[in-house]
Amino acid sequence: MARGREDYEKNPGLLKLLQTLSFLIVFVMGVVIGLATRAHMSRYFGSQTENYSFINHLSANMPHEEKTCTIVPVSDKVDCMSMETFLQPKNLTHGLSDDELFWRASMVPRKREFPFERVPKVAFMFLTRGPLPLLPLWERFFQGHDKYFSIYVHVIPGYKLNVSTTSPFYLRQIPSQPVSWGTVTLLDAERRLLANALLDFSNERFVLLSESCIPIYNFTTVYEYLVGSNHSYVESYDDPGRYGRGRYRRKMFPDIKLHQWRKGSQWFELSRALSVYIVSETKYYTIFSNYCLPACYPDEHYLPTYINMLQGSLNSNRTVTWVDWSLRGPHPATYGGDNITEDFMQSIRNNGEPCQYNAEMTSICYLFARKFAPTALEPLLKLAAAVMEY
C-alpha cells in the first residue's frame, strides 16, 4: 500500500532511511558507469597505440624529408629530447635544408664544462661519387677503435653504399646534393659534411678524404697526432702564376684583395673551433659563389684565402694528405697495384722533409695519401700490417 505524505511526516526516521538508500543507489550506478567508460577508453587507446606503432614502422621507410627521430625497429625508438640524442645523433638521416643545417651546426655552448664524460673523436668525412673501392683497408684501420672516431659519407643523391651491417660505414651516409667538379657545389658538399659532423659534440677534429685516399699510419698514431695538435691543417700559399693569382676575380675587391688571395689542397683537416667558423661564415662564401666560377676552382681557394685572412693563427698552412703533382696536369698521379711496394710506401711515410708540429720539428708530416686506384687494394692489404702497422 502506498504511503501518503502525512505518513512520512509522522515517521521522520523512515524518510531519512529512504534518502540514504537513494544516495547509495545513485553512487553504485555512478561506479558502474565509470568502470564501463574506463574499459571502453582502454580499448580505444590500446588500438591507437597499435596504430601509432604501425605508423612509426612505416615512417622508417619514408623519404628522409618525412622521417622523425624514430629508429627502426620501434623497440629502439629514441627520445629526441634526451641528452644522448642531442650530443651524439645516431641517425644521420634528416630533412634539414643546408641553411637550417648550418644554423644548427653553428651553435656553440657558452659553458666550457661538459655535463658528460667527453672522449674527443676524429670525424672522417668521405667525399665520393659512389663506391669506396678501398673500403676493406679503411675497415682494418678503424678496427678496435670505435670510441674514438665517427664516419660521414657524402655520395651522389640516390646512391646507397653496399656495406655489411658490421662495417663502421654502415648507415653513415648524410643527406647529399649533386656535386660538379670545379664548382661551388664542392664547397657546399664539404660544408655539408662539416655541419653534419658538428652535430656530434664529441667530434673534435675533422678530416676530409676521398675514395682514393688511404691512411699511411695506424689509427693510434693518426688520432694522437690530430687530437694533440694546436693547429688545423689547411694548405695555404701565394701562387703568383696563372693557376694562383691568375684565378683571382677583380669583382672580389675590396673584400678580398689580390695580395690576400691564396691557393691550397682541397683535402683539409680542421679543429672543431675552425669548423664552426666555416659553417657559420656567409660573407666570403657568397663572394666565391658569385665570382669564383670556372675556371677559378673555389675548392682550391676558398678555405686557403678565408683562413689566411681571418683565422691564420689557427692554421699550420700545410696539409696532412700526401699527393704527387709531378705530372703537372690538372689531376695528380694515380697509383695502381703495380706501383705498390714497401719502398714506395715507406718513401711517403718518411718523406725526408721535416715539418713543424706544435712548435717542434717532426718527421711525421703526412697521415694520409692519394690517389690510389682500386687495383692497389690487394697489395696495400698485404703491406698494411708490416708497413702501416694496422
Notes on the protein architecture:
There is one protein chain. The chain has helices spanning 5-10, 12-59, 83-87, 98-105, 135-142, 184-198, 219-227, 272-280, 283-291, 302-310, 342-349, 377-388, and strands at residues 121-127, 149-154, 203-210, 214-215, 269-271, 321-322, 355-357, 360-362, 368-369. Helix 4 packs across helix 6 (184-198) and helix 6 crosses helix 8 (272-280). The chain has 390 residues and is an alpha/beta fold. The strands form three sheets. It has a four-stranded mixed β-sheet with strand order 2-1-3-5. A three-stranded mixed β-sheet has the order 4-9-6. It has twelve helices and nine strands. It has a domain at 117-388: Spore Coat Polysaccharide Biosynthesis Protein SpsA, Chain A. Keywords: Glycoprotein, Glycosyltransferase, Membrane, Transferase, Transmembrane, Transmembrane helix.
